[in-house]
Amino acid sequence: MPNKGHLWPNNLMESSIPSQYLLILIALAGEQGYSMASLCEGTALSLDKLSSPGSRVEENEADRIIANALIATGDPSLGLAVGQQLNLGAHAVIGQTFMACADLAEALETLVRYGPLLTGSTAQLSRYEDPGHDRAGLMLSLDSPSLSTRYSHEVFFSAAQKTISDLLQMPITDLEIHLPYPSPADITPFIRIFGDKVQFNADRAILSLPGSLMRHPLPTS
Q1: CA angle 65, 20, 15 (to 5 degrees)
Q2: DSSP line for 66-125
Q3: Nearest partner of 85 among 148, 172, 166, 139, judged by Cα
Q4: Residue 189 · residue 84 · CB < 8 Å
Q5: Which helix (H) or strand (E) holds 203?
Q6: CB atoms < 10 A from the CB of 9, how many?
Q7: Mean pLDDT in the chain?
Q8: Which H or E run includes 137?
Q9: Of the residues 76, 104, 117, 151, which has the maximum number of CB atoms within 10 A of its CB?
Q10: Do residues 153 and 193 lie in contact, with contact meaning Cβ atoms separated by under 8 Å?
Q11: pLDDT per residue over 114-166, tens digit each?
């Protein structure tokens, strides 16, 4: 396993996120007619800065762009769409580390270990285990601005679903999602991505899979 200190010597890396995540958000909002300038309003960011290889964005500026996009588009499920665009390449060197893991359990352990470098300091990731029901996965705890709380949960779980499916190179048919906020009026986007096992008003934010998948060898290893 790569040494964290070697890859990311600056602890400030954990209070920022990869700019690629925001570029995808901006591109999706741009398809609806919203300009780069309007989405970056209130920040010092520009397309050149965001597009610089390996660039990262401080959390406060990322939060501002997310808030701008949510207000401009009026699309509360924007996080689901962004998450589906986050392929393994979007996660940069950590995405390559995922691909080198022997099985899904190791990949999830890697995500928990290096998660702050992808999600910033406001997200705490841990492994979820329910041996009695042979379920395993991830648990997410967020300390994010109220406007982006739903977005943050949905972009993470949507990206996790996409990443897991890409690593296994097959669709996931028995995924369970627990979300700690009320059900929106239209849950069609959730069913399209996660299937019909989506629970709202949950005590904890959880993504779980059959335990047998944890030991499934990854074709990318």
Answers
A1: 65
A2: HHHHHHHH--TTHHHHHHHT--GGGGHHHHHHHHT-SBHHHHHHHHHHHTHHHH-TTEEE
A3: 166
A4: no
A5: none
A6: 8
A7: 88
A8: strand 135-142
A9: 151
A10: no
A11: 888 888 888 899 999 999 999 999 999 988 666 678 999 999 999 999 999 99
For 3-56, write each residue's pLDDT tens digit: 333 344 445 566 888 899 999 999 999 999 999 999 999 999 998 889 888 889
**pTM, full prediction:** 0.88
Q: Is 120 left (phi over 0), alpha (psi -120 to 50) or beta?
A: left
3 state SS of 55: coil
Assigned token pair, 210: 């059959």
Q: Dihedral of the CA atoms 174, 220, 215, 18 (nearest 10)?
A: -70
Question: What was the pLDDT predicted at 2?
Answer: 39
- For the chain, give the number of residues: 221
8 A C-beta contact, residue 44 and residue 61 = yes
Which amino acid would we find at residue 23?
A: L
In one letter, which amino acid is 171?
Answer: P
Nearest to 91 by CA among 107, 69, 77: 107
Sign of the dihedral defined by the CA atoms of residues 119, 121, 123, 125, in that order: positive
pLDDT digits (tens, 9 = 90+) for 86-112: 988 788 788 888 989 999 999 999 999
